[in-house]
Every structure is written in C-alpha cells, then in structure tokens.
Design brief:
A: MetI-like fold, 0% strand, globular, B: 368 residues, alpha+beta, Rossmann fold, 5-stranded antiparallel beta sheet, 9 helices, 26% helix, Fe3+/spermidine/putrescine ABC transporter ATP-binding protein (chain B), ATP hydrolysis activity (chain B), ATP binding (chain B)
Chain lengths: 272, 368
C-alpha cells in the first residue's frame, strides 16, 4: 500500500512539474518559432521556416540603437541602485536608529505604486522642472522603482549578518576599511550580487516607466510594444527571443564565473 | 590579594618576577540611558593572573569586559594598561583580545584563514602566517588537516579551539573571555576548562574570564570577583569566596545554601523561633540583622550520639540522589526549607520527623 501511494505521489509530482515547465516555456518557444517564420505576419502554424528575420534584426541600425539604449540604461541603473541600496540596506537592517521603522515602510511604498502612474507622475515632474525626457530621465525613473527592490534584496542578507564579526575584526587589529574589505563585503556578496542581477533584469525588461519617461529614446520593451500595437514584423519575436537568450547567457556566465572564483579560492586554500 | 597573585606567577615561567598590575580599573562606570550597567568598579589585575568575574545575567559583567576590550567607552573612571590610560583607545589599537560568547568566527573563511586574520592585518608574509597558524593549531590541539576546512563545518568544541588560536595569533597582553564555553555540553566544557587553564599556565598571559557559572570560575581562576548590579561585591581567591562570602548574595550565588536569619539582642544573637544561636567567636557584624549561612554538606541529622551546636526539628519531604551523595529537603516548624546532604553510606534510616543541626565552626554569618 505504502509503495503504491508513494509511486502515485511521485507520478503526480512529476506530472505537475512537467505541466508547469510547459506552461512557462511553451509560449516562449512559440514566440521563438514566430521569429523564425518566413512570413510577414504573425500566424500559426509556421509554414516556412527561415532565419531571414533574425538576420534583418541583427543588421538593423534601429535595433542596434535600441539595444544600446537598453544596455546602457540597465548598466547605469545596476551600478547606481546597488550603490544606493547597499547603504540603504545597512540603514534598513543593520543599525538601530530613530525613524528606522518609518524608513522601512516608506521604502516599500514605491514598489506597490502602479508603475504607469509612477511613470506619468515622474514625467509631469520632469516637465515641471524643465527637463526634456530622454534615456537619462528613464534612468532616474527606473531608480525610483528599482532601488527599493534592490534594497530589500540586500537587506535580507544584511539581516543575517552578525555585527559582532566586525567587532571581532577590529579587536584583532583590523581598521574599518580592512574589515569592510575582508569581512563585511565578502559576507554580504551573495546579497549584493542578487541585488545587482535584480536591478539589471528589472531595468532591462521595464516597459511602463520607460514608456513615459524615456522621451524620444526607445528601449527594447518600448519598441516591442509599439511594433505589436502597429506595424508588426517578425523582428518583434526575433528580438524578444534574442534578449531572452542573452539574459540566459549572462546568467549562465555569471554563475560560471562565480563557480570559477570559488574553485580558485578553494584551490588556493588547499595549497596555502 | 597580592600573595595570591604571586603564587600563581611562580609556576608561569614567562611572567616577570615582581607582580604589578597589568590592567588597572579606577571607579569605572558605564551608563546607558540613565541606567548604570557598570557602577564604579575599581580593580587591579596582576600580570599573568587568571581572574574570573562571575555574576548573574544583567549584573554588568559583559559591559565591563566590552569596556576593557575597547568595544565600549566608559562613561566615567579610568582604565589603564601597563600604566597608560586607554579609556579612548579603540579596540584595534589595544594589545588585548576578546573571545566572544558567540566566538565570532568569520563564516566565509577556512580555519586557517580565521587564525591568520590578525597576522594578515599585520601584513605578515603568507608562508610565515601559515607556519604560525599551524603552530597555534597544534597548541590548541586541532589536527593539521583542519587548516583548509570551512570553519562552519567544525563542531562546537573545534570552533572553540579555532577562536582561541585566533586570539593567540594576535599575541595580546591580556585575553578576555565572554562565557565562551556556555553553549557546550558538560563533558566538553570540563575538558576545555582544563585545557584553558593549561594554556594560561604555558603562555603566562593574563586572562580575564567572565561567566555566570560558579563551577567554571572555581576550576580555573586565581581570583574570582563577584558582580551584582554593576558593582563588584567581593573579590578573592576561590577558597576565600567559597568559605567566607561577603554577604548573603555571594553565599547564595555560590551554590545551594541554608539561610537562617538572626537578630541581635542584649542576650546575644537569637533565631526567629527565639532560640539562641551559637556562632563562632570573634564575629563582627554591623547592624542588628544577620544571616547564618550553612552549606548542605555541613548540615546533618542530629541523634543522641551525635549532637550539634545548633539544632532544629522538622519533617523530611523530599529525598534526592546526587550519585555518591544524598540530599534531603526538610521543612522546619517555622515553615522554612532546609537542605541536608550526606554521603550515601550515611543515609537517614529513621522516620520523617527529624532533628537537624550544624556546628558554629561550619557556619558563616553575613550581615543583612
């Protein structure tokens, strides 16, 4: 009886897993296939396959500019938001200070604010201040929403950090800078790393904020949307697939680099 | 007190011959939001001494230690190290090292890296660091192949040894310990207590240890200071503290005791039940209220053959086995509970109605 029950449970777990994976990846696969269609219009099933649209996408100057914009915005947002969020997270989770609870609540608010409304509000502000919207204002808009998220991500790591370790380092003669370099940062690295990843992906995929605040400059999500609404070409699914593949490659590469670093540290430790 | 320190120095070869305070505290206080956690402590700690500060939690002993280590600055008073005022010297500029209660080992480092940390701060060359770390590991009895082991994979006792080796790597003049053994099981604790005592003797360094455990203090210390509510109520050798506690608090802190309140009258000291109390000659107590403190092992059953200076009658209501000894709980006529501890061979054979007593020479009389 027991084994029958267990076998059935195992089967159900496996079936559910397969279903979830299919539900996630089937639409993506369909999108990818649509980009490989020879036809001009979005239609299933794909009649004739070709890499024509992939080639066109790769050659298009417009798309180069788009990718450049998106990468630039995402990179700047990543660096700035990790910087702000690191210190924010220390204030959030590390030091007891007057108004910390209020700070914790205030920080969460922008995350729950609907992004289109936030984007519009920011656009109105930029107008009022006489700043014409461009990719630079989009960076600011992204930061408003992404810094709180990254702060939370890093704060989780900071919560589990025992401040006694810093006292111990100091007690063993280390200066503040040495302690930061050898104790605090290495222990917080996983949190900072996840925070940076979140920042990049959230900025890379952000549509509502870019729509309102990037002005004439376009980003990948913005362009995809506008082409979906009017003037569809198979370049849309092609570009979508490419950006997904690039993100996957980046994630994989990052993981690989981390693994290599750890291997080297272990090897060094063994050799002394 | 100085004679005690001198005797402890005679068996430590590294320490200088003439004892002089390495650490001197003068009226040290620490006030948090109007609450005096440490309330005016003056104390001399001699070179090479093993001093233990005991006290219940909240007595201010950890705060005291943190001030000595430089992690907290005193609100008042002076702390001097070898004659130099160190009140405001930060912890990384003090030749002292603290072994934390949580040990504070760096979780992202190997055993070797943890021990080498203070050497890395001093920019010692890697090969020399490694040699020194392995030396220290041998000293604290850690196997050599632990060098590359992740410190978080070590057991409680091993972590203890890593923390100790790391503190020694710093080569401090004074080592502080904040109850580092409190999380270990009894057997391991006993073992490490002895090893710590050995390390103290071999290194000749000054150890200041805090704990709430009387046993730990008794095993290891040259001198014990008892803290209560931010003050040191008594300081002396383990023997002095045990046999002549300064007051009832110290007496009760150092294990289970029987307490008989007494008061002074023109006819001498009387118990609550009106009977006179025989006390050891030469008693000097200020005030008219005092307590007689008798340890359970000095309380015994009184029979016709074996009398006692002081007696009282009561009823046995509990009996415990302590292994080789037996302990009885007896309720007196006045409703007080007394403890009598006897060797197993001397187990009480009679009925529950008993007379118990003690001799004046075995009792301690404290004020209050």
């Amino acid at each position: 009886m027991q084994t029958v029950g267990r076998t059935r449970t195992h089967f159900l777990i496996r079936a559910w897993t397969v279903f979830v994976v299919l539900a996630i990846y089937l639409p993506i696969a369909c999108g990818a296939l649509a980009g490989l269609s020879k036809g001009r219009y979005f239609a299933f099933p794909v009649r004739i396959f070709s890499t024509e649209w992939w080639g066109k996408t790769l050659d298009s100057f417009e798309i180069h500019v788009l990718v450049q914009n998106s990468v630039l915005i995402a990179l700047i947002v990543t660096v700035l938001s990790v910087l702000f969020a690191f210190f924010g997270a220390l204030a959030f989770a590390r030091y007891p200070w007057k108004g910390r609870r209020a700070f914790q609540r205030l920080l969460l608010l922008p995350i729950f604010f609907p992004q289109p409304v936030l984007g519009l509000a920011l656009l109105l502000w930029f107008n009022a201040l006489g700043i014409s919207p461009s990719w630079k204002t989009a960076v600011v808009a992204h930061l408003v929403w992404i810094v709180p998220v990254v702060t939370l991500v890093i704060a989780i790591q900071v919560f589990s950090f025992d401040p006694v370790l810093e006292e111990a380092a100091s007690d063993l003669g280390a200066s503040r800078l040495f302690t930061l370099r050898t104790v605090t940062l290495p222990i917080l690295w996983p949190g900072i790393w996840s925070g940076a990843l979140f920042a990049f992906l959230l900025s890379w995929g952000n549509f509502p904020l870019s729509l309102y605040t990037a002005g004439a400059d376009s980003t990948i999500p913005k362009w995809l949307y506008s082409k979906m609404v009017a003037g569809y070409t198979p370049m849309v699914p092609a570009l979508g697939t490419m950006s997904t593949l690039t993100a996957a490659a980046l994630l994989l590469g990052g993981g690989l680099i981390r693994l290599l670093i750890r291997r080297r540290a272990e090897l060094r430790a063994r050799e002394g | 007190m100085s004679s005690v320190a001198a005797s402890s120095l005679s068996d430590s070869s590294a320490a200088p011959k003439t004892p002089r305070p390495v650490l001197q505290l003068v009226d040290v206080r620490k006030v948090f939001d109007g609450f005096a956690a440490v309330d005016g402590i003056s104390l001399d700690i001699e070179e090479g001494e093993f001093v233990t500060i005991v006290g219940p939690s909240g007595s201010g002993k950890t705060t005291l230690l943190r001030m000595l280590a430089g992690l907290e600055s005193p609100s008042g008073g002076y702390i001097t190290l070898r004659g130099e005022l160190i009140n405001d010297v930060p912890s990384n500029r003090r030749p002292t090292c603290l072994v934390f209660q949580s040990l504070a080992l760096f979780p992202h480092m190997t055993v070797g890296d943890n021990i080498e940390f203070p050497l890395r701060v001093r920019k010692m060359a890697p090969e020399e660091r490694r040699r020194r770390a392995l030396e220290l590991m041998a000293k604290v009895r850690l196997p050599e192949d632990y060098y590359a082991k992740n410190v978080m994979l070590c057991s409680g006792g091993e972590k203890q040894r890593v923390a100790l080796a790391r503190a020694f790597a710093y080569d401090p003049d004074v080592l502080f310990f904040d109850e580092p053994l409190s999380a270990l099981d009894y057997k391991l604790k006993k073992l490490l207590e002895k090893e710590l005592k050995d390390l103290h003797r071999e290194s000749g360094k000054t150890f200041v240890y805090i704990t709430h455990s009387l046993e730990e203090a008794m095993v290891m210390s040259d001198r014990i200071g008892v803290m209560r509510a931010g003050k040191v109520v008594q300081i002396g050798t383990p023997e002095q503290i045990y046999s002549t506690p300064a007051d009832r608090f110290v007496a009760e802190f150092f294990g289970e005791v029987n307490v008989v309140p007494i008061r002074r009258t023109e006819g001498g000291w009387l118990r609550r039940d009106g009977k006179p109390v025989a006390v050891a000659p030469g008693l000097s107590i200020d005030g008219d209220e005092a307590s007689v403190v008798i340890r359970p092992e000095y309380m015994r059953f009184v029979t016709e053959e074996a009398g006692a200076d002081n007696t009282l009658s009561g009823t046995i209501f509990n009996e415990y086995s302590l292994g080789s000894r037996l302990q009885y709980q007896i309720r007196s006529r006045t409703g007080r509970t007394f403890l009598v501890e006897v060797p197993r061979a001397a187990a009480w054979k009679g009925d529950g109605e008993v007379t118990i007593g003690w001799d004046a020479a075995n009792a301690i009389v404290v004020g209050g």
